[in-house]
Amino acid sequence: MIQQVDVFNSKLPEHLKITISVEIEKTREPLYQLFPYGDVVFVSKDVARHFGFHSAEAALKGLYDRVKKGAVLICAWAEEGADALGPDGSLVHSDAFPPETLVDTLGAGDTFNAGVIYTISNGGSLQDALNFGCRVAGRKCGFHGYDGISEMLND
């Protein structure tokens, strides 16, 4: 499917192209083939550690040569927040925003990714995207399920 989107995009002006995001979350060799296909690539802390990296920053610098030219590589590192490396070589960081009481972490990573994609797709900066992703993931950890996340858009 991604290859079909690439073919479709090749016929469009830059401002009309579909942005492709991929997440390499599990330490499974076949998934590593996805690195060069995303415009926005999320790599998990587990995958980063599998490659021998001990921080998000080290993982981004060590794995960036696997993504296509112009891509953004993002690595969330749980309670330490998240880092991103953009096509201009600049590294950006957001601290984590933990809730007062930790209730439910299931889906926090997906919530982070969604927050980042939402911000980028609405013209936000990479820094704004990381901050929003970390904020919404932190809030999600403060309650069961996903009820209340949409309130983040009004904050």
From TrEMBL:
<keyword id="KW-0808">Transferase</keyword>
<dbReference type="GO" id="GO:0016301">
    <property type="term" value="F:kinase activity"/>
</dbReference>
<dbReference type="Pfam" id="PF00294">
    <property type="entry name" value="PfkB"/>
</dbReference>
<dbReference type="InterPro" id="IPR052562">
    <property type="entry name" value="Ketohexokinase-related"/>
</dbReference>
<protein>
    <submittedName>
        <fullName>Ketohexokinase</fullName>
    </submittedName>
</protein>
<dbReference type="GO" id="GO:0006753">
    <property type="term" value="P:nucleoside phosphate metabolic process"/>
</dbReference>
<feature type="domain" description="Carbohydrate kinase PfkB">
    <location>
        <begin position="27"/>
        <end position="140"/>
    </location>
</feature>
<keyword id="KW-0418">Kinase</keyword>
<dbReference type="InterPro" id="IPR029056">
    <property type="entry name" value="Ribokinase-like"/>
</dbReference>
<dbReference type="InterPro" id="IPR011611">
    <property type="entry name" value="PfkB_dom"/>
</dbReference>
<dbReference type="InterPro" id="IPR002173">
    <property type="entry name" value="Carboh/pur_kinase_PfkB_CS"/>
</dbReference>
